[in-house]
Amino acid sequence: MRPTDPDARVLARVADGDAAALTELYERYAGPLFTFLFRMAGDRGTAEEILQDTLLAVWRSAGTFQSRSRVSTWLFGVARRQAHNRLRGTPPPPAAEPYEQADRVPGPEELAVGGDWLQAALARLPRAQREVVVLSYLADLPHQDIAEVLGIPVGTVKSRLHLARTSLKEALHEQSV
């Protein structure tokens, strides 16, 4: 990465123990990371916990960033590893989280990324397809960055997206029928 990259400079400050720099990264990336984690975990509480685990891992490992990718790509990779560690061995997220009006109000992140039907459709996808859909459409990462985050070839990203889009179209069709 170029030394003028603002994210790389902020991450270098995190590596030097600057807590304000970690806050700055949080403010820049908490929304996209939360969206990714929410769609992977299936519920707000678990996604928030994984996001906190991610920030702790970033705090501890910022010095290992070697500028071979963009900071955003590296952050999504850290978040993905934290999610896999947390969700390993757990069943896929529920088709739709029930709403209990008295104590369950969707947060702004949830409202921004879709309703229950989307969560249900994403939950039906295999985890590998769900990851590429969320990283591509909700985190707005280019195919090359998704490939780096997931450690797979760009062609695999494209094929997983194709399969996922087909499944999501079927789910949308079922929803409208």
Please summarize what this structure is.
With 177 residues, the chain is an all-alpha fold. The protein contains nine helices and no strands.
Word description of this protein:
With 177 residues, this protein is an all-alpha fold. It has one domain: Orthogonal Bundle (Rna Polymerase Sigma Factor, Chain: A). Helices cover 71% and strands 0% of the residues. It contains nine helices and no strands. The chain has helices at 6-15, 19-41, 44-61, 71-87, 108-112, 116-124, 127-138, 143-150, 154-176. Helix 2 (19-41) packs across helix 7.
Tags for this entry?
single chain; 177 residues; mainly alpha; Rna Polymerase Sigma Factor, Chain: A; 9 helices
> What is the fold named in CATH at topology level?
Rna Polymerase Sigma Factor, Chain: A
Main pleated sheet? none
Average pLDDT confidence is: 83
Q: How does the helix and strand content classify structurally? A: mainly alpha
